[in-house]
Amino acid sequence: MDDTSLLTLAAELARHAGQAILDIRARGFEVIRKADASPVTAADHAAEAIIVAGLRAAVPEIPVIAEEEMADGRITAPGPAFWLVDPLDGTKEFAAGRDEFTVNIGLIRDGRPVLGIVGVPALGEMFGGIVGQGAWKQTQAGKTPIHVRTPPAEGLTVMASRLHAAMPELQAFLAGRHVASLSNIGSSLKFCRLAEGKVDLYPRLGRTMEWDTAAAQAVLEAAGGRVTLLDGTPLSYGKPGWENPHFVCIGG
Where do the DSSP E strands lie in the chain? Predict the structure, then answer.
């Protein structure tokens, strides 16, 4: 499969997974704590099962690294290319009844994200992109190209994690910058708001894992944005332990 076909595959799987999540939300669900105290629900597991089975059936030569499998101790070794899957990013948002949770499927080659799909099932949105070829947003109204914007004269629109909203490190990072507004939401949707030109900056100064960011980084970079470490080097993948250092998402 070429990259366009792989993106189409990921989009279809994300759509099915998103519907499964919404069905479970409508029925009701229990929140369970994993070993690291993070929450997980039946929706996480159902969505991951759909995505992982679909990817492995369609492209068995590309390994799949998926969050809940990793949490359960089912370790898959990466290759030069591999998928990173977070079937329900923002489980805390989901459990709290908010709509900002996402479905994330990203493809990595040689340590860099090359394409990604971010579904936002509760909002009826999907974002996709291939780095170097462009990004798009799809709603019921159709699919439209998206691109980061040049920050407006009135100042930066900043998004930050809801979990880390009150961190003094965030205020220190923003000190001296011309900030027009600051809002806080959970999940990888923050990357996508940059990608579609609604937000200018997203500093992430708390813990994330590679499956949290891979798909959305691909979308943002396909839309003309950047994701770098605090020293300006690109955020890369396949790191020991799969944990990301602090990073910054930048629009135009």
Answer: 32-33, 39-40, 64-66, 81-89, 102-109, 112-120, 125-130, 134-139, 142-146, 156-161, 179-185, 201-204, 208-209, 226-229, 243-244, 247-250
Q: What residue segments make up the domains of the chain, in order of their start?
A: 3-146, 156-250
Token pair recorded at residue 174 = 């923003």
Given CATH 3.30.70.260, say whether it is the number of domain 156-250.
Answer: no
Residue for token digits 């923002």?
90
Each residue of 186-218: pLDDT tens digit? 899 999 999 999 999 999 998 899 999 999 999
DSSP codes, 110-152:
TTEEEEEEEEEGGGTEEEEEETTTEEEEEETTEEEEE---PPP
Structure tokens at 74: 């089912």
CATH architecture of 3-146: 2-Layer Sandwich (3.30)
CA 230 – CA 234 distance, rounded (Å): 9
Instruction: Report d(CA 240, CA 43) in Å as an integer.
Output: 28
Dump pLDDT digits (tens) for 140-149.
999 999 999 9
For 54, the token pair is 């679909």
Cα separation, 95 vs 101, whole angstroms? 10
